[in-house]
Amino acid sequence: MRYLPLLALLLTACATHQRVEIPSLGKAHIGLKQGYKAEIMSQGLMNPSHISFQPGTGRPTVCDTGNGRVLLLRAGGWEAIDDFKTEYWKKLEDGRKLYQVGPLATAWLDDTTLLVTDAGQADGHETIRWIHVPHQRVNRGGIWGWMDKQSNKLEALADEPGDFGEGNLTGLCFSDDRKTLYVCCHGNDNRTWVARMDLASGKLERFLSADDHGIAVNSPMQARMYKGNLLVLYSGAGGKDDGILVHWDLKARKPLRQWALPGLTDPMGFAQIPGKDEFVVTANNWELGKVNPGKLARVKLGETASIEIIADKVPGPVNCDFGPDGRLWVTCLGEQIDSDKGLVLAISGF
Description:
single chain; Neuraminidase; globular
């Protein structure tokens, strides 16, 4: 683990330490509707994925997944926890390797404990890691964050041919009582899962399978608590607008309801707009080997999903969350995968 020099970004924290003011690198032109404003907050990342915010300080935490590190904004710029392994998600017959990934998601258990998915391991070998992040830099072998413990692995199922165990752990979400962590999983088998982990013991186990309930759309990407149960976003097949939101009954382990998201190709992240029964969804518009213009949409859930496109030229949007500043922070692949084109946007106007 090491310190990452300033990525063309300076930090100015307000005196209360409740939010972080970050100078913008410039406006982002992403086809936004009138009334919204997008600014580039960071760039130079590789295949960035999840974003979260440290309690108390409100400092952004970004998975710079292709570089095998998690970035945390500290005084003077970004610092990195960077001892995570990476792997290529896709290996082609012509020898090319595409989509380098490492840690895919983070969640702050408290203001010094960061949970990270060690997703650069092979399927069936990934774990959830507890990283201790002290408020002040500690002279401990030159590092400032270190692993306290980790969960078990979700290994292969004996009755599933071709199952290597769960992989690409992502989309972390705490239960309302913060005793359980829900985890979206992508195994190389016939079923994809939402797993759960008991935070007291660190025991990770498979929990919900859409396939077991006749839901053909797979690839769970993000989970959020919603009205006492779990709302899960499934991205579906690459290049198709077959993504769905499924509201799961956590006690019965059965779907309560599901909504199609027409016009949103490969939705990968969603976040609830603060104070509203409404969400923002990132539609990546995925294609193997290249980045297409993606979309951001406001979504209301009723008999059907009401969808309002608010941006249609976003360079590969992946994950999103609202920061303590009230803005929507969005990680993007940028102009090219497996490069230093990844960036983080902040969007106001909600």
